[in-house]
Write a structure and sequence with these properties.
GO molecular function: transmembrane transporter binding
Strand order of the largest sheet: 3-4-5-9-8-6-7
Oligomer: single chain
Family: Belongs to the TCAF family.
Shape: globular
Radius of gyration: 29 Å
Distance between the termini: 76 Å
Organism: Phyllostomus discolor
Pfam families: M60-like_N (PF17291), Peptidase_M60 (PF13402)
Largest sheet: 7 strands, mixed
Structural class: alpha/beta
Number of strands: 28
Number of helices: 27
Helix content: 25-40%
Protein name: TRPM8 channel associated factor 2
Amino acid sequence: MSLSRCGEDIRQDQHQLLEGISELDIVTGGIPSQLLVHGALAFPLGLDASLGCFLAAARYGRGRVVLAAHEGMLCAPKMGPFLLNAVRWLARGQTGKVGVDVSLKGLCALLSGHGLKYSLEPQLADGLAVYCCKAYSDTQAKQLQEFVAEGGGLLIGGQSWWWASQNPGRSALAGFPGNVILNSFGLSILPHTLQPGCFPVPTPQTRSYHFRKALSEFQAVLSQRSGNLEKNWLAKLGADGAAFLRIPAGDVPAYMSMHRLIRKMLQSSGLPAVSRENPVASDSHEAAVLCLATELARSGTDCSKLAQGLGTGTCPSSLDPSGHPITVHINGNNPGSGESWVSTGLYVLSGHNAEVSLPDAVACSGLKVQIGCHTDDLTMASKLSRAPVVTHQCCMDKATQSLSCLWGGLLYVIMPKGSDLGPLSVTVKGAVPAPYYKLGETSLEEWRRCVQKSPAPWGELATDNIVLTVPTASLRALEDPAPVLRLWDEMMQAIARLAAQPFPFRRPERIVADVQISAGWMHSGYPIMCHLESVQELISETHMRGSGLWGPIHELGHNQQRHGWEFPPHTTEATCNLWSVYVHETVLGIPRARAHPALSPAQREERVREHLAKGAPLSNWDVWTALETYLQLQEAFGWEPFTQLFAEYQALSGIPQDNAGKMNLWVRKFSEKVQKNLAPFFEAWGWPVQKEVAAGLACLPGWEADPMRGHVRPR
């Protein structure tokens, strides 16, 4: 069946389901997912302005299905008219009862109020015309599918974004219980959220959007035959197509044929040569091709032909990796509080499969493998210098796993937090060695041989505390990485010292350079991401010692911030700079006034004057102004109170959740630590110091050298 033939005309069904309804108010207190409508007999019922679907229906066999993107919609009185239409449409005039799962008791009042017979059921039971349930259990998936196929009606609701957040590395399209039930019906629940609101009932024009119809028109556009795909359809198609390809095709003929058709379509059109010099708009045909191609390769479809001729940033797919397996030895311990990427020093070619084997004893230990380190998702960017998603991660739920990534990438084994597997051997087929230098382990001879010969476009410099991922072209000019990495370890030790964290780090921090990142000039996280322009400052000891390294240390400072002593949004971009100041002064020997232009004495004084002239409003206390408060304390009392408090907070319980409570706790703790009454100082800055806190600190000596003396606001 061609893509343009999407089954029977469903306008009559849509009319029955939406009859008498002008708007759909889905503000029910929950955050819905978006729905994917992909079956030939499935159709959307509720759409937001971006064509995000929150209500949908489908015919399947002799039965019918109605799906809501959050279970709260199935019990909300404001959704009553729609729910009554839905139950009647699902019943198809049958006289059987409506079965309501015990978890959806809120629906019962609506049904009984309109004379509809119902029964509360712990699970699907015999004799029901319609069954209503949540989408969070797949224990009866087969029975529900048979129930619908034989003429039953299924009203079901749920979101999958929470499941996805709790199951990183697993596909919600494949593993979320609701999708195990729904995929066969041509409906799926996506892990992407949708902003709830009150939406008009879709017009015939918007209602006509359908993934298969859009794909058919897209095929016509790519083949330059015809087709006129609207931009909002195009943007939706890229996301929907990528999601559809995450549904396991298995032995389902309809899915397998769609995969083959998409591969043929993409091979015919070819991949766009996207780069920094040749970016593409995110709502363009080229962007949609990038999304579809990425997910097609992830699905296991052979995309080696598609990968031929890829541009910069990937390893030429024409290179044939040695047929001989490569065995590397890694550390399977991860005492850190989050997942840890462990480098293998190997690179998987674009479009090629890598076969990764681990010892049988550690299979199903929660390990994952990942191709690529450029994990920023650029889906929301207006222009693309690379594909939106260029990494692939999968669970090692068996001893040998095969995976590929269209764009290629460095290969990692991901250790779950608390892993204590000890030394591990990892054997990989289908990869090539990448430049990799580990301080204290890699010899200079090994480094020079590898960096000059490796075809991999990316390599890594590593210590036990930091891993830097940069282009191989930049590494080739680095004769000896040891001096710069020793300096990095000094800086990392200083970061740990100020944060009162153990050194070496429980999990090495990572900084990855990319052609495009999702936010800002750099951003924190794991890994920290930066632009290619920052590479030289990361790997040049001369540059660091001469000009400093404010940005990367700022981001590393973000990674040290903790909820207990952070007051967002005021201190989000302020306290992280304590680490920048500390590292520059204690390791690089660069005083704060020279470390950043904003810390010149003149600028600091001017900021204080401006803040006080405005009446010291808390709304003005952020970034450099907020940092000044901490710098004044540090210049008077040194770094020790900060380090001691950061350590104390790690074991502190009962920390308030609100900013005012946390700020007053900090006022009290810092005052007690330095044995000075700092309440007047913080009040002068505009902090909401509580009367009881100020009274409790009045017994401490006053701070005679308070730089804010004379600026205390009356309480």
